[in-house]
Fold NAD(P)-dependent oxidoreductase.
Amino acid sequence: MKTILITGATSGIGKSTAELFAKQGYRIIICGRRTEVLESLKTELSQYTEMFSLKFDVRNLQEVENAINSLPEEWKSIDVLINNAGNAHGLEPLSAGNTNDWDSMIDGNVKGLLYISKMIIPAMKERNSGHIVNISSVAARQTYVNGVVYCATKKAVDVISEGMRLELTEFGIKVTNIQPGAVETDFSLVRFKGDSEKASTVYAGYEALKAEDIADAIAYCVNAPKHVSVSDMTIYPTAQAEPRTIYRK
């Protein structure tokens, strides 16, 4: 039975992915920053499979190292790493940007992905098998006004995914880069710092993707035959033509 580690598993795409893989019978390690939510999800999904939870912040290297090193021996062999944790903060031009927001996005979306991957990859290379799924965004494909830093971090995820593939294919390790379009989760609520009215306008007038849609796509890639490796996947809601263009009713 394969073991899957999912970062940012307490909400949105990460939570839906954990739910889907648990129902498919994989052993799941869920990671996040909120102990109560982690334990609740662990209890809920334990009816389907073996579950383990790790509380840490991917932005903190010491926390990442301590968490991964704390895994019991029977949980150390991770077959699939899903780098889902990330964030978007603020929607201002660079000249008015909040540098704390920039740090949060760069630390979470880029450095956090690197920290956790560095901890997991060596064992995959030793076993000559594994699969890494990185969650990027269509924001990597086209920069938009007032989203420069966020777009840059997601472009970095694309580049890191490509670099991983170049370094790891010879070891039998698959690398998949997923670029979701507009997905109705807490993403916009976080970006607008809890302003639910502003967040709701992002998804008004059309049917956005759901977290479950991205979980389905991830599962397709992970469940593909051994000789099949999905390198990149871009997923839009039907109403979205490109990152900046959504047709609303």
Summary: The two ends are 46 Å apart (CA to CA).
